[in-house]
Amino acid sequence: MDLNTVQEVRDARRHYVWLPGDAWLGGGTYLFSEPQPHIRRLIDLSRTGWEPLRITADDSLEIAATCTIAQLSRFPKPARWAAAPLFEQCCRAFLASWKIWNMATFGGNLCNSLPAGPMISLAAALDGTCLLRDQAGSMRTVRVADFVVGAGRNVLQRGELLRSVTLPARVLAGRTAFRQASLYGLGRSGALVIGTLDPVDGSLTITVSASTVRPVRVWFPPSPNAAAVREAVDHAVAPDEWFDDIHGLPAWRRHMTLRYAEEIRRELAAPAGCAPASCAHPHCAHPDSAPTEEAGR
Ligand SMILES: Cc1cc2nc3c(=O)[nH]c(=O)nc-3n(C[C@H](O)[C@H](O)[C@H](O)COP(=O)(O)OP(=O)(O)OC[C@H]3O[C@@H](n4cnc5c(N)ncnc54)[C@H](O)[C@@H]3O)c2cc1C
Q1: What atom in ligand 1 is closest to the CA of residue 100?
Q2: Gap between the Cα atoms of 225 and 227, Å rounded
């Protein structure tokens, strides 16, 4: 839609003084989707020329804020990254038209800070770190899990910019498990739960998003039991942090989150590469199997 209060669009590479009514422009898929009466000027990031994706010397992945969902999806992920499938799972968790797929940016998704932001889910689960730059040029880092603090709320200060997110090599090397629930086919996520297994010490981390107003990460020592996972995940989310909107009631979101956390616990407890439907391993999660009584209550 036309933003008829916007008087100027500025290239972010040029010098400018941040003024009231200024806003960074990423892909614009949120900004141009509804009225923004408070915005007078857009500072356009699209010509910064930042390299969208870069594997660093220590095998971490640096994702520029301006990287689009399409670029992230297309980027060839090295086979040594056991976490590679998670990228596509999260890209596809987006309720994305062709325009959003090709225009929406990784940074715009984080800075929009919606509970159902799939790039938030991805980056929080893979223990990403945000690099932020203020108006004076000073940089600071914040973990993605601490960047979003509520529905549509984050720690960005006035005029501060998200420059990039770095995903550490160690987490990229670990196995992951992904579950997403929506009230209708191809609908917005009502619950999105990701498990990551540390390749060095075998610890499990469960990251809850979409069902909660902010991403919630819970760490477990190796081989936690069902009761421990259920109790810890439920405890980590305060009662008023279960998100409530048209895409799902809080009680349903909590139910799906705890169910998925248990499925993920079982999936990642099973040996890598086992086919759940035929595997006789005691921890193996059959996709159709309901959680045990212990976990599903
Ligand atoms: C039909 C439809 C469906 C959608 N579905 C989803 C969905 O399922 N999940 C979801 O999360 N969103 C959804 N969105 C909202 C939006 O498309 C996404 O959040 C998208 O990722 C925003 O990215 P963008 O680059 O277009 O951000 P923009 O619209 O450009 O910006 C979004 C916000 O972030 C700020 N911003 C952008 N980049 C930076 C930066 N580098 N540093 C600091 N601030 C910045 C902007 O000032 C603005 O406040 C949907 C939108 C539509 C229209």
Answers
A1: 17
A2: 6
| pLDDT one digit per residue (tens) for the chain, 297 residues | 789 999 999 999 987 799 999 999 999 999 999 999 999 999 999 999 999 999 999 999 999 999 999 999 999 999 999 999 999 999 999 877 889 999 999 999 999 999 999 999 999 999 999 999 999 999 999 999 999 999 999 999 999 999 999 999 999 999 999 999 999 887 899 999 999 999 999 999 999 999 999 999 999 999 999 999 999 999 999 999 999 999 999 999 999 999 999 999 999 999 887 655 555 555 554 444 433 333 332
DSSP state of 242: B
Alpha helices (H) along 77-225: 84-92, 98-103, 106-112, 118-125, 144-147, 169-172
Assess whether the C-beta atom of 50 lies below 6 angstroms from ligand 1: no
Q: Does the beta carbon of 72 lie inside 6 Å of ligand 1?
A: no
Range of the domain at 132: 53-170
Atom nearest to 30 CA in ligand 1: 29
Quote the CA–CA distance of 175 and 233 in Å, as a whole number. Answer: 20
CATH of the domain at 204: 3.30.390
Total domains, the chain: 3
Q: Are 165 and 201 found together in one domain?
A: no
The verdict on 198 and 226 lying in the same domain is yes
Within 13 Å, how many C-alpha atoms sit on residue 192's CB side?
28
148 lines ligand 1 (CB under 6 A): no
Residue 190 lies in a domain: yes
Distance 85 CA to ligand 1 centre (A): 23
Cα 228 to ligand 1 centre (Å)? 36
